[in-house]
Each structure stands twice: as C-alpha cells, then as structure tokens.
Amino acid sequence: MTNPAPLHPVDVLLLLTDGDQVLLALRDGTGYADGQWNLPSGKLEHGEDALSAVIRETREEIGLHLDPQEPRMVATVHHRNNAGKSRVGLVFTAAYDAARHGEPVNAEPHKCAKIEWAPVELLPSNTYPFTSACVRAFQEGQPFALSGWQ
Question: Which residues contact 34 (CB under 8 A, 6 or more apart)?
Fold first, then answer.
C-alpha cells in the first residue's frame, strides 16, 4: 500500500560550509528548477527521520559520508513556489573537512550538471529562491523564515 504524498512535503537541505564558501549543485535534467543552483537536498521519505534523511541525501548527491553528530539544524524555512505549492525545509549545516570527508563529487549527474563552492555572501544570481532563503536564514541566525509568501 502506498502512502499519499503530504500537502507540504518536508525537505532536508545541507549547508556544507568551507570557511566562507557553501557547496551548491546546478540542477539539470529534472524538469524542475533546471539551470538553477541549489543546496544538496531532498524530501524526507516515509518513516525516515530528518537526521537520517540529510545524511542519506548528502551521500546520494555529493558522495560524502557524514557522521550523525556532524549535521546541526540551523533553520526551518516554509517556502512557496511561483505555482503556489509549498514545502517545509529543515536546514542543516556541517563544516567540510577534506581530510575526513574526501572530495565532494557530483554523484547524481542525471539530475545535476555540476557542483561548485560559492561565497555564502554572494550566491550566483540563478540560485533557486528556496536555497537563497535557507542561506539567508543561516547567515542571519533566523531559526524560522518564510519564503515566497506575500
């Protein structure tokens, strides 16, 4: 038996930081927000807790294995897109450690054109608004933010 999709999907998003840089992925081939930069992220699966989800998404999207003590939740963002569909994002951060993590890779080339580090203070102009709101909430120390709501 399949469970119906929730009306407000829950996303987990990772702000992987290296000094003043954040890792972004350029969406491609998904049919949604292609050509825009976003954080490594994904939907919470049925029966999955948020910490397990962010660890899973990190491994699936950028090939890094996070220890469960690494991700720290920093914000919740309630985002509504231009079509009026909304979602709740649980934003986690982790500090990148090359010696421990290895090099991040584009582990989903069928969904992502490339990954790149970008300055937290100067995200590319084609950054997806949900991602921009998550980074802004992190920078400003806001535990909760609205994005796309009038």
Answer: 27, 28
